[in-house]
Each structure stands twice: as structure tokens, then as C-alpha cells.
Amino acid sequence: MKRPILIHPDPRLKKVCDPVSDISDDLRKLADDMLATMYDAPGIGLAAPQIGVLDRLIVLDCAKEETEKPRPLVMFNPEVLAASEETNVYEEGCLSIPDQYAEVTRPKVVDVQWIDQNGNLQTETFDGLWATCVQHEIDHLNGKLFIDYLKPLKRQMITRKMQKLKRERARA
Ligand code: NI
Q1: Can you give the pTM of this predicted structure?
Q2: 3-state helix, strand and coil shares in percent for the chain, rounded to the nearest 5
Q3: pLDDT tens readout for residues 29-51
Q4: How many domains, in total, are found in the chain?
Q5: If you measure from the C-alpha of residue 120 to the centroid of ligand 1, how many angstroms do you get, rounded to a whole number?
Q6: Is 137 a catalytic residue?
Q7: Given 68, 79, 86, 137, the catalytic residue
Q8: Is residue 5 part of a domain?
């Protein structure tokens, strides 16, 4: 089931989310809803706070449509264990900040640990777009958005555009 996505600014997007203690059917259902919401948007990643749930849960799939099979990943309590010195720049966007994109510099390679939907601990090394996406989504769990990496003026400009968008949507 698709869920509505919160648009910045929203206090729920600024919160540090709570760790998940055991993987219940409810949490698995939540992860399925998040994947459906992400694919529908369409997007390559979504964090639980973006649908107003303050749990440490993210989903992502950065497989390129034409060349790779879909690879939906569900991560409970994801953590970056190690990050490369080498960095990468990607033009990032966010489903909570529609139609706004900006270059963000992040470590190029990260080792990530998480609990999967079956309750198993997983670790994997991510590179390139996958690495950027998983870091962007984990940031959401700490109340951080990609625009927080930008200069204040640019961030304020985007925030004002989003406030206007929300006003327009509320009126519609
Ligand atoms: Ni985002």
C-alpha cells in the first residue's frame, strides 16, 4: 500500500529515529509499503520518517532499469561501519524535496551493516550511486537532509520553494 510522502519542511523530517528492536510482521508490512511508495514515486530510496514513521528503517533500489535486475533492499537499523577517504560527487534529489537537485560530496565507498526483513544481520560494501543513496537514506534517520550540506542561502531558497509548494497543495 502506497503512503503519502512528507514534504520538507516538516518537524518529523528533523528527528533522530528510534532503533527497531525486533522485526515484527507490522514492520515487514511497513517496509513493503515503503518499497511500493518508492517505486511508485519513482525514487531509488526512501526512509521511514519520510512517511512519518520515526523508526530506523530505509529501503533502496539503485539498480539501473535497462541493465540490471531490480534489487530491493530493506534495512533496519542501518549503520555505516567504515567510509573511504575517496569521495564522489552526485547530483542528489529527495522525494521530500520534489524537483530540487544539488551536488553533494560524500565518501565513495562505505561498509554498511543492517538487519534485513528476516531478522538477519547483513554487511555489504557499497560503491558509486548505491553508496551515495544508502548514506542519504541513513542521514534521514538522523534528521538530516541533503540540503543540509549546501550553503545556507541555497538551502533557504529551496526551503522557501517547498513552503510555497506546500501552500499551493493545501489550497488545491
Ligand atoms: Ni531523501
Answers
A1: 0.97
A2: 35, 30, 35
A3: 999 999 999 999 999 999 999 99
A4: 1
A5: 25
A6: yes
A7: 137
A8: no
